[in-house]
Amino acid sequence: MNYKRGDFYTKKAKKEGYKARSVYKLQEIAKKYPILKGVKKVLDLGAAPGSWTQFLLQKQKWVVAIDIQPLAIKPHKQLHFIQKDVTELDESFLSTLGKFDLVLSDMAPKTTGIKHLDQQRSLMLSETALWIAQQLLNPKGHFVCKIFESADTQNFFKAVQSTFQKAYRFKPRSSRKNSKEFFIIGLYAYQTAS
Ligand SMILES: C[S@@+](CC[C@H](N)C(=O)[O-])C[C@H]1O[C@@H](n2cnc3c(N)ncnc32)[C@H](O)[C@@H]1O
After folding, report:
1. Which of 12, 39, 47, 110 lies most in the core, judged by the most C-beta atoms within 10 Å?
2. 91: Cβ below 6 Å to ligand 1?
């Protein structure tokens, strides 16, 4: 293999018709953890350009996708896209979306290069995603959330542990080695908000 791993996944995504190399991170997570088993309806936070949504639609899921930026994929009868800032969604808006079996967040802040600031922004997006999951997940629903490693991630992990029966940390092979990102996976939500 002559390519660096990043180039390999970018080329693979292009060849396979996915809008981003990120799709392979979700595929790896879904291979290792039963996040898609029995799942009908998925909330995809930070969905643009749309490779996770593409993969979910291929798996016949119903998807509500949210991002500040537009999706780069075609409309689909099982897809509802909302162009909004996730941090500005309130409870009354969220309640219009119904309940979900799986909440995903691949949200990432625009990085500034200032490590502490980028970590704090990533944490804030992850905390928002967890709060939304707590509002909208069906009991026994699952959660997958990207986060940048920092001194505060352990506290966030504890919050996931207290919401789900099982919680894991996972760094996919397809995630760039020099990136501080990793994923927190929560399986089988305890009773969430009704
Ligand atoms: C790594 S990309 C997601 C890639 C996507 N999972 C895919 O497979 O195509 C991160 C996304 O998070 C979005 N994002 C960042 N902050 C956000 C916010 N506050 N509300 C909604 N989306 C946000 C960005 O606009 C960006 O599209």
Report:
1. 47
2. no
